[in-house]
Amino acid sequence: QVQLVESGGGLVQPGESLRLSCAASSRNTFFFNDVAWYRQAPGKERAWVATHSVNRERSYADYVKGRFRIDRDDHGNTAYLDMNNLNTEDTATYYCHLIRLGVWGQGTQVTVSS
């Protein structure tokens, strides 16, 4: 079964940017599967952030629209989440998810604090 590994999280100040990466263990994974990013803040349920479909359609939660961008590389084995103008409410563990296969990564922590 394909595995996902997220990276790129860290501690940033409000207004700064981060790029998260999601590497799949199999090539072309994201050519054949819709990929989504979710996040889970302490004490809260996991929440959907964005989806990139196989036909390159992108959709976003209202609270990140205009600030975040989801993408994938041309080889189809890495997905990205570019996060701009981060604020403290974006603090969470971010997870990559293959929707059809039901596969989740282990998550990467993003902390936004001054």
Labels describing this entry:
114 residues, mainly beta, seven-stranded mixed beta sheet, four-stranded antiparallel beta sheet, 11 strands, 47% strand
Element-level helix/strand string: EEEHEEEEEEEE
Our count of helices gives: 1
What's the rounded overall pLDDT mean? Answer: 95
Q: Note the gap between the termini.
A: 40 Å
Structural class: mainly beta
Describe the fold and architecture.
Helices cover 4% and strands 47% of the residues. With 114 residues, the chain is mainly β. The model has no long low-confidence stretch (mean pLDDT 95).
Write the layout of secondary structure elements.
Layout: E1 4-7, E2 10-12, E3 18-24, H1 29-32, E4 35-40, E5 47-52, E6 58-60, E7 68-72, E8 78-83, E9 92-98, E10 103-104, E11 108-112
Parallel strand pairs: 2-11
Antiparallel strand pairs: 1-3, 3-8, 4-5, 4-9, 5-6, 7-8, 9-10, 9-11
